[in-house]
Design a protein that fits this description.
Blueprint: E1 3-4, H1 10-17, E2 22-23, H2 25-28, E3 36-41, H3 47-57, E4 65-71, H4 82-88, E5 89-91, H5 92-95, E6 100-105, H6 121-134, E7 135-141, H7 143-153, E8 158-172, E9 186-196, H8 199-202, E10 208-214, E11 218-224, E12 229-232, H9 242-252, H10 278-294
Parallel strand pairs: 1-2, 1-4, 3-4, 3-6, 4-5, 6-7, 7-12
Antiparallel strand pairs: 8-9, 8-10, 10-11, 11-12
Helix pairs in contact: 1-3
């Protein structure tokens, strides 16, 4: 989908340089179609990096996608220039009366905190409740997945003895399921988290299905049967060097951190990391946009109702 974004957004130059089809407002207005409206609640500290990663996978498919970037009002990021936030981001109260075909809630480096202790938890609860009637399909990523499963279904998270950090093999549990269609029997995805959800808790919720899991990383993709809510516990959107950057960041801070598993060739941190998940990321994001959103969202976006 050609991606409709502001020409001044850093991602426009980055993605254009990768020969990814992005479209400015002027060109988009000449096309007589209804674009998919996708909101991204960006909770990551490095918001520009997260924008580039997500927008890369929301592009280059046949239809037009209009992006709305959202930030929390109850907490302001200290790792992204305020000028960037003011120019490209909206607050929830500015879009509360709008409808969206899709919403992405990103991860956040707060998984070791209790949900209620997160500065923007009350605001996030309000957004997740609003999404039930104003968004057709919501994709929750990493901590966003844990938060969504807890808020909507009471599924708890558990602390890990050691950080889940690296690239792990996953398998598809449900064949011929639209969200995982096209994935290999075994595929790879990055994880970077200190907590987990357990399959026994998800299986207690009749509305949920586990579509993919890993022997090492546990539950990976969870969805409702109608795909109105999708939860991914890892980071398919990560770039080649994201785990590398996190590793050296923590090393420089003097934190105890292991080398990310199955990532550096021979665990040699001087070598370029292998990227083994790009194809899987393209498949999952394209499937979500096509099957979970485009094929099912009402043509009249105002017809979206409570799931």
């Amino acid at each position: 989908m050609p991606l409709k974004i502001n020409r001044e957004l850093p991602a426009y130059k980055v993605l254009s340089g990768e020969n990814i089809f992005v479209m400015n407002d002027e060109r988009a207005e000449t096309q007589d179609i209804r674009p998919l409206k996708i909101a991204i609640l960006n909770l990551m500290p490095k918001k520009i990096q997260a924008e580039n990663q997500l927008l890369r996978y929301l592009s280059n498919t046949p239809l037009q996608v209009e992006i709305k970037l959202l930030q929390t009002k109850s907490y302001t990021s200290h790792n992204t220039p305020l000028e960037h936030l003011n120019k490209f981001y909206s607050y929830f109260d500015e879009v509360v009366n709008e409808k969206f075909d899709g919403l992405i809630i990103t991860g956040a480096p707060v998984e070791q905190m209790e949900f209620q202790d997160v500065a923007y938890w009350n605001e996030l609860k309000e957004i997740m409740e609003w999404s039930k009637s104003n968004v057709y399909s919501t994709l929750h990523i990493c901590w966003g997945a844990q938060a969504g499963l807890y808020y909507h279904y009471g599924v708890p998270k558990y602390p890990l003895e050691n950080k889940m950090f690296g690239v792990f093999a996953h398998r598809v549990l449900k064949e011929n399921v639209e969200l995982t269609r096209g994935l290999d029997d075994t595929f790879f995805a990055p994880h970077s988290r200190h907590t987990e959800i357990k399959s026994k808790d998800v299986e207690k919720v009749k509305e949920l299905e586990i579509l993919s899991e890993s022997d090492d990383a546990g539950v990976f993709i969870v969805s409702t049967s109608d795909y109105r809510k999708v939860f991914i516990t890892g980071h398919l959107e990560y770039d080649r060097e994201t785990l590398k950057d996190e590793y050296f960041r923590d090393k420089e801070k003097g934190l105890e951190i292991c080398i990310p598993e199955n990532y550096f060739p021979n665990d040699d941190t001087t070598l370029e990391p292998a990227m083994s998940w790009r194809g899987s990321a393209h498949i999952v994001f394209a499937n979500w946009l096509n099957y979970c959103v485009y094929q099912n969202t009402p043509f009249n976006i105002n017809d979206i109702r409570n799931d």
